[in-house]
Amino acid sequence: MPVPLSANIGRIYEQIEAVCAACGRSPAEIRLMAVSKFQPLEAVKEAYAAGARLFGESRVQEAETKLENRAEFPAMELHMIGALQRNKAKTAARIFDCIQSVDRNELIAELALHAPSRGKPLDILLELNAGEAAKSGYPDAGALAGAVEAALAVPALRIRGLMTMAPLIADDGAAARRAFRSLKQAADNLAARYPEADFSTLSMGMSGDFQIAIEEGSTLVRIGTAIFGEQP
Ligand SMILES: *Cc1c(COP(=O)(O)O)cnc(C)c1O
Q: Does the pTM exceed 0.90?
C-alpha cells in the first residue's frame, strides 16, 4: 500500500512547526504549496481531499489539460512555477492565480497584454537567479529593480514578492542558505525602495531544503517529492 498523501502532508506540517519553533517564527507565516507537476489528476484530487489548497504546476499545457475542470477544486489556488514561454503567456494569465516564475521583462510585457481580460489583477513573483549555476531568474538586484518598475507600470499585474530556486549543490545546504539569504535581502531592499509594492511573499524551499528556507525567512515552500513521492 502506498503511503496516503495525507500522511505526507501531515508530516510536512509537523516539520514546518518544528523548524518554526526552533527559529522563533510562527507556522502561520508559512504557506505549503503542493507541487503537482507530472502527477496525475488522481494525485491532485487526493492532495486536495487531504486539505492542500495551494498547488504549483510547471507547464502550462499540462496544467490546462489536467485541471480543466477547476470546478472540482473550488478553493484551489494555482501557481505557475516553471519557465514560461512568451507564446504560453495568454493561457497562463487565464488559468493561473499567480505566476511565480517571472524572469524577464519581455514576459512582463507579454503578461501585460493578457492580464487585463482576467477581470482581476494577476499576481506575480519575480524570480531571482541564485547564481552558482542556477538556470533561471533575474541575475541581480539591478535587474530586479528594473522588473519592479516595469510591473508597477501595469495595473493588471500585482507584484506579491520574490521567488528563487536554490542551486543543487551537495554541501549540507550552505549554497542553498546563501541563495535564500540573498532572496530575503533583495526583498527587504526592494520593499524599502518601492513602498508602493508588496514584497511579502518569499517563495523559497523545496523538499530537500525547506527547513533551511524557513530559517532564512521563507513564507511559501514548494513541495513535490515529499508529498507525492518521486515523479511518475
Ligand atoms: C519541481 C519543483 C519544486 C518541487 O521540488 P521537490 O524537490 O520535488 O519538492 C519546487 N519548485 C520548483 C520551481 C519546481 O520546479
A: yes
